[in-house]
Amino acid sequence: PPDVEELGRSTWTFLHSMAAYYPENPTAMEQIETAQFIRTFSKLYPCWSCAEDFRKFIAKPENAPRVSSREALSRWICGAHNEVNRKLGKQEFNCNLWKKRWLENDEC
Ligand code: FAD
């Protein structure tokens, strides 16, 4: 099986970067495809227990992927990552810093 920590760091880099470079004003089709991508991702992520918890998280109506804008998606991914941080006993990240960390590439 893959190294769950290394896989996690790489995947979060990908997901936060994807959100940071997502359109500020996405089309209806981009929104549908992005929400679908996140759902498909949750079925293929190769840490099965991680993927299962992530599916349970996004299945709650209040946690549905927010794809209406770059800001909304970046904050949504930040919240999803914080959910995992809480579960693992890691420090929560201040989501007001998403742009500084993931668009301006500052370590925070
Ligand atoms: P990471 O948590 O990988 O974070 C990398 C960097 O992202 C941090 O250094 C920080 O700069 C930044 N960051 C941290 N939090 C946020 C945030 N909320 N918003 C924006 N930026 C942030 N591991 C398990 O053991 N069990 C699991 O169930 C599990 N589920 C996972 C589910 C998913 C969808 C993913 C992608 C990963 C999961 N992982 C899980 C892996 C875990 O989240 C970490 O990636 C791994 O433990 C390595 O942690 P880390 O301390 O190096 O930093």
| Distance N to C terminus | 31 Å
CATH superfamily: ERV/ALR sulfhydryl oxidase domain
Biggest sheet details:
none
How would you sum up the global shape? globular
Helix content: 55-70%
Structural class: mainly alpha
How large is the radius of gyration? 13 Å
The whole-number mean of residue pLDDT values reads 97
Q: Hetero groups bound?
A: flavin-adenine dinucleotide
Q: Domains counted in the coordinates: how many? A: 1
Corresponding CATH architecture: Up-down Bundle
Q: Quickly count the helices.
A: 5
EC number: 1.8.3.2
Subcellular location: Mitochondrion intermembrane space
GO molecular function, one term: flavin-dependent sulfhydryl oxidase activity
GO cellular component, one term: mitochondrial intermembrane space
Explain this structure to me?
- By secondary structure, the protein is mainly alpha-helical.
- The chain has a single domain, classed as Four Helix Bundle (Hemerythrin (Met), subunit A) (Up-down Bundle), CATH 1.20.120.
- 64% of the residues lie in helices and 0% in strands.
- It contains 5 helices and no strands.
- It has helices at 4-20, 28-44, 48-59, 70-87, 98-102.
- The longest helix is centred in the last third of the chain and has 18 residues, at 70-87.
- The termini are far apart.
- The model has no long low-confidence stretch (mean pLDDT 97).
- Bound molecules: flavin-adenine dinucleotide.
- Flavin-adenine dinucleotide (FAD) is lined by residues 4-5, 8-9, 11-12, 16, 45, 49-50, 53-54, 78, 81-82, 84-85, 88, 90, 93, 98, 101, 108.
- Flavin-adenine dinucleotide binds next to α1, α3, α4 and α5.
- This is Sulfhydryl oxidase.
- Keywords: Disulfide bond, FAD, Flavoprotein, Mitochondrion, Oxidoreductase.
- Its cofactor is FAD.
- Its EC number is 1.8.3.2.
- One of its GO terms (molecular function) is flavin-dependent sulfhydryl oxidase activity.
